[in-house]
Amino acid sequence: MTESTVSDGIHYHQFDVVIVGAGGAGMRAAIEAAPHASTAVITKLYPTRSHTGAAQGGMAAALANVEDDNAEWHTYDTVKGGDYLVDQDAAEILTREAIDAVLDLENMGLPFNRTPDGKIDQRRFGGHTRDHGKAPVRRACYAADRTGHMILQTLYQNCVKHGVNFFNEFYALDLVMTEVDGVKRVAGVVAYELATGEIHVFQGKSVIFATGGFGKIFKTTSNAHTLTGDGVGIIWRKGLPLEDMEFYQFHPTGLAGLGILLTEGARGEGAILRNASGERFMERYAPTIKDLAPRDIVARSMVQEVLDGRGAGPHKDYVYLDCTHLGAEVLETKLPDITEFARTYLGVDPVVERVPVYPTAHYAMGGIPTNNDAEVLSDNDTVVPGLYAAGECACVSVHGSNRLGTNSLLDINVFGKRAGNNAVTYAKGADFVPLPDDAADGVVGWLKQLRASTGTESVAQIRKELQETMDRNAQVFRTEDTLNAAAAEVRDLRTRYLGVAVRDKGKRFNTDLLEAVELGFLLDLAEVLVVCALNRKESRGGHMRDDFPKRDDVNYMQHTMAYLSGDAHSSESDDHIRLDWKPVRKTIYEPTERKY
Ligand SMILES: Cc1cc2nc3c(=O)[nH]c(=O)nc-3n(C[C@H](O)[C@H](O)[C@H](O)COP(=O)(O)OP(=O)(O)OC[C@H]3O[C@@H](n4cnc5c(N)ncnc54)[C@H](O)[C@@H]3O)c2cc1C
């Protein structure tokens, strides 16, 4: 632990490497950094409460433990699954380094499920195939349906072993950048301590953002309440770009009406989607791999069934996940948590009954642009010296316009490790960038203003309306009209947000204040998503435009880059958002029609 001082009521700390976020990506980075440099992890949640712990189904790696497989097939699937918007060199790194990523975890003590001869067992998952789409392949390493829980616990134990300094329940609210010789460099992070309401400035030679996703812009979501996109929002407000924000993944099997996730691992083990009349409808949409098609295709097919009147239930608004033929033993041993979720939350027993399911907002493909070394990119792919991002908040882009299941737990390990290694190498060769005297002023003023607000708008009400409009207008199917409706409503909500009431004026555990802060990030990101979605007049991966149903490689085989130009708090129009394009990096895979 390095020195820590207090001046004018603000706490100052100095660490070589400062990591924001203690999910899988942040802790995997910390394990690389801590043995070589002083390392702090700032996290708004106690580390083992991070969303990585909710991940169920598995982590992809072509170990070929149970059947033929190799990294090239995995790359092909990732590129095709991402509807060719994937940067192919990045996907090659992901799949090549996957094997070590799993073995690293095994060596750290992760209790994977085993085959009878003691190897790490593997199961099927959507979009993962043998020999370029011929049939589903067993590629997902898993620990029952608690893979993320095991990863998070294992990483946390190893962080403790390596002496990582955790600052738990500290909310990062700003990134400090200082101009040195005409170049903006990272100087540190400003954070708010939940327990005391005090402000801390963490000076760091390098800073890694690993703050996770922002599923809470939607109402029906598998994401935890805390996934409000703070890190992505902070980067945005700093004037740095965001990439591919229109691509949001809707996971096919959320519990109907609730959004709570039932892992694709269930279909990996053989579960089948059926419509109201019991038909296995995926045979019509993806004749080769059926229920194990990528998520964008399955989610769209489910919604189509409902739109065509083949939905089940009193309102014909969901379909069924049928696990009844799997048998009690498979469900209890390989899928125990989701079996329990269905019983607890819907009162349905998957052993004997079909479970009502419907798509749920799940994963942000877009986010903070980085290169393959996890360095954050500014305009024209210029590296921001000392700044890194990894995990769901980052866009490398290994997932393109649609992530394959089990590739995120892989991504956080591969690129978390790369971020940690590169950040520590950078820190060893760099000096601390001086902190400006007013480093904390922005945050102090902002929170003071929120506390002093005499407005009457309710955080919960604005959040509810935001989530409802996003579900209604920017979900699985989108059109110009629905997106325009979302844009107008989000803009209106941003205006109302200026008059938001914070009733708790106190310092200790002021979650009222922080929910207001988080709502601000949600509103910013929802607006960027909708503006990017309006601009992409084609359908690709998770972005389905009913008015432009075809993929258009001539005009849109490019990443969207969004820039804040002007005031982040402007709510009048979207002219504070500037859009640009960036080429997709290709290696050997030519885009073809995506058939499964
Ligand atoms: C229910 C569910 C099941 C899933 N199942 C799978 C699966 O089987 N396989 C797979 O590959 N993927 C799965 N995913 C996706 C995958 O789990 C996530 O994308 C991944 O775990 C994200 O990891 P992360 O480290 O980027 O972020 P997270 O694990 O979400 O961690 C984010 C961290 O950032 C911190 N943070 C956020 N904001 C701030 C702030 N302002 N200040 C300080 N700290 C902050 C939080 O405290 C937290 O520690 C699943 C996701 C969900 C929701």
UniProtKB/TrEMBL annotation:
Catalytically driven reaction(s): a quinone + succinate = fumarate + a quinol
Cofactors demanded by this protein: FAD
Nucleotide-binding keyword on record: no
NCBIfam families to which the protein is assigned, alphabetical: sdhA_forward, sdhA_frdA_Gneg
Domain FAD-dependent oxidoreductase 2 FAD-binding: 16-409
Origin species: Agrococcus versicolor
Protein name stated in the entry: Succinate dehydrogenase flavoprotein subunit
Pathway(s) this gene product operates in, as recorded in its UniProt entry: Carbohydrate metabolism; tricarboxylic acid cycle; fumarate from succinate (bacterial route): step 1/1
Primary localization: membrane
Localisation: Membrane
Similarity comment: family membership: Belongs to the FAD-dependent oxidoreductase 2 family. FRD/SDH subfamily.
Membrane disposition: Peripheral membrane protein
Domain Fumarate reductase/succinate dehydrogenase flavoprotein-like C-terminal: residue ranges: 463-596
Keywords associated with the record: Electron transport, FAD, Flavoprotein, Membrane, Oxidoreductase, Transport, Tricarboxylic acid cycle
Enzyme Commission (EC) number: 1.3.5.1
